[in-house]
Design goal:
Strand order of the largest sheet: 3-2-1-4-5-6
Strand content: 5-15%
Bound molecules: nicotinamide-adenine-dinucleotide
Distance between the termini: 66 Å
CATH class of the largest domain: Alpha Beta
Order of helices and strands: EHEHEHEHHEHEEHEHEHHHHHH
CATH superfamily of the largest domain: NAD(P)-binding Rossmann-like Domain
Number of domains: 2
CATH architecture of the largest domain: 3-Layer(aba) Sandwich
CATH topology of the largest domain: Rossmann fold
Helix content: 40-55%
Length: 299
């Protein structure tokens, strides 16, 4: 059993903290929203009045916050890097930009502390079922090994991607590829349908051919083909388009700072940016199929 402080109890953090409680850990929780804290307290967590209080006596500090600015604010501006116990390992599971993750890891090291980035894949369903994939960036593999058993109480795959920031880079690469395969699959289905093919027949052909991919296997964006896919429930998420746009922005930032060329990633960013600005941000990211369908040739 470990003593864990969990900061950020939103859509992802609340079920992750609940799984740590189920795993038998002593969990102390804090969120800016008091109801989120009291709801976890009913499951057995210790309710804290501040992040600093939650961290008192903790062996591990886990944060799950919306974006880079929140993570930087918690650890640097609010001083958690100074106030957390020196022996505590700090684990940020939020999806943020790799440069901020590297900066925080270096700032932690400068204070004699260890911090790793550990963003997740698997969404709210994975957080609830405890089946998340964690991709970690750690300066010291031994620190990663100490964190791994805790992460396995919230997920089923835990990878060490490399040094500080590597977890964030892995997450950005994966989601950029996912967005490209979602757009590509949507284009193929739209092309086939506009040429008189039944999208279900076409999907089955591609699934048995070299175009086979994860989107076709479990997340077909064409409505009515897969009972459990968001496309068959009016694109209710799932994984919202605005979160995909956020992740594509992080991928573009990593590409710029490393001078890696990502032409298709850039196009995917533009398409999701337009899709979100047209009011589809809260819809599942597979709703890009509708945007592709409605594109008209330039006259
Ligand atoms: P959310 O907005 O539901 O939850 C974030 C929580 O952080 C909120 O409860 C908020 O009150 C709290 N918070 C913000 N600043 C705080 C502070 N200083 N101290 C304490 N609490 C604070 O977001 P979410 O959907 O849980 O996502 C969290 C992270 O996980 C994001 O980085 C997101 O990109 C990533 N992620 C989300 C999904 C998904 O499907 N939702 C999937 C994978 C990764």
């Amino acid at each position: 059993m470990a003593t864990v402080a969990f900061i950020g109890l939103g859509n992802m953090g609340a079920p992750m903290a609940a799984n740590l409680i189920r795993g038998g850990h002593d969990v102390s929780v804090f969120d800016l929203v008091p109801e989120a804290v009291s709801s976890l307290a009913t499951l057995g967590a210790r309710a804290a009045a501040s992040a600093e209080q939650a961290c008192s006596g903790a062996g591990f500090v886990i944060s799950m916050l919306p974006a880079s600015k929140h993570v930087e604010s918690l650890y640097l501006d609010q001083g958690l890097l100074d106030s957390a116990p020196t022996s505590a390992i700090l684990v940020d599971t939020s999806t943020i930009d790799a440069d901020t993750a590297r900066k925080l890891s270096a700032a932690a090291a400068g204070r004699g502390r260890s911090m790793i980035d550990a963003p997740v894949s698997g969404g709210v369903a994975g957080a609830t079922e405890g089946t998340l994939s964690f991709m970690c960036g750690a300066a010291d593999p031994e620190v990663f090994e100490k964190v791994k058993p805790i992460l396995l109480d919230m997920g089923k795959n835990v990878f060490l991607a490399g040094g500080p920031g590597a977890g964030q880079v892995a997450k950005a690469c994966n989601n950029m590829l996912l967005s490209i395969s979602m757009i590509g699959t949507s284009e193929a289905l739209n092309l086939g349908t506009k040429n008189g093919l039944d999208p279900e027949v076409l999907s089955n052909i591609m699934l048995a051919s070299s175009g086979k991919n994860w989107v076709l296997e479990v997340y077909n964006p064409c409505p009515g083909l897969m009972e459990n896919a968001p496309a068959s429930r009016n694109y209710e998420p799932g994984f919202m388009s605005e979160l995909m746009l956020k992740d594509l922005g992080l991928a573009m930032a990593a590409a710029t700072s490393s001078e890696a060329m990502t032409p298709l990633g850039g196009l995917a960013y533009e398409l999701y940016n337009r899709h979100v600005s047209e009011g589809m941000g809260k819809k599942d990211f597979s709703s890009i199929f509708r945007a592709i369908e409605s594109l008209q040739p330039e006259s």
